[in-house]
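Journal club side-thread
Mid-discussion, someone asked how the predicted structure for our own chain would compare to the paper's figures. Pasting it here so we can look after the session.
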Amino acid sequence: MLGFAQLLRVDPRHPLNETQQRSVQHIERAGAHLLAMLTDVLDLSRIEAGSMPMQIGPVSVQQTQDEAAAMVSNQAAASELTLTVAPPVGPLYVRADHVRLRQILVNLLSNAIKYNRQGGRVQLEAMAVGDEVVLTVMDTGRGLHADQLAHLFEPFNRLGAERTGVEGTGIGLVIVRRLLELMQGRIEVSSRPGEGSIFRVWLPAAAAPGQDDEPGGRSGFGTLDGQDDAHSGALTVLYAEDNVVNVELVRQVLRMRPQWHLEVARCGREAIEMALSHPPQLMLLDMHLGDMSGLDVADALASHATLACVPCVALSADAMPDQISEARRRGFVDYLTKPLDVGRLLRLLDQLAVGQHLP
């Protein structure tokens, strides 16, 4: 849904009028809200089942602060709020999962923005306290009274916010606390009605890692850059996908890059046979095909000399860090998650079209 909405909004061949643009924006906002709800429910389910993967190690506090702030900066600007990030004094690291710590900060910052007042402030800061690090999110919002604080971490209890028109799932803070518990951390809250709230995240301090140890992160949907026509020859994408809706979305995206031709394989074995018969310039692989995984397909391709240099890119709804890390380890040059960031796929195609190596 989000992918097709992006196409409607940006396709230069069929520009929308102002009313249609607003309608598409409503679709994208509603779709993003639905996605957030589903993601929260799935995260909570994985935590409760004990199946939430964690990659615990030294994580840079300043890097994670900056990433989280960047992810909510547009939200803060739209709400006419001042968002401030106070960098820690000197290098500061915590023992945590990089992706989940960023998720925690984004959740707290997003709440501080949503429940603030026009012209208000949100501040994120961090400091070392003994053998721990405390990350603090402060806001000048409506604040919470004692009864609300007592029920703050109850699943699906929005403390009356459902009557304000502010969107939310009611389980974000529950997930925050559970994630911190999995990382041997904790959260504290203090608040005064009419003055604002302060959320403090405590985590064990860590020594600085080696240069190659620290994981990176990814942001949300990107912008759509212009087409690069430097490559005039025909190029082929072989897409292994058993969902016809996903295939149609990618088919429409590739119409914006006419030098690329799309071939579709409905299962892993068919993808291998088609690649051997006519080697493509790019393999786009779903991770969970009907007969085998995308990893298995990539391994099979790599065993053939004629296909070993064909770049493989994942396109999957499986966005778990361990799955992405394993794909990278097995030679995937990129990992795109669903809902598809159309702009990111187009940039990837443009890079390949001009012979640029992918990371």
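Post-session note: Residues 1-52 form one domain.
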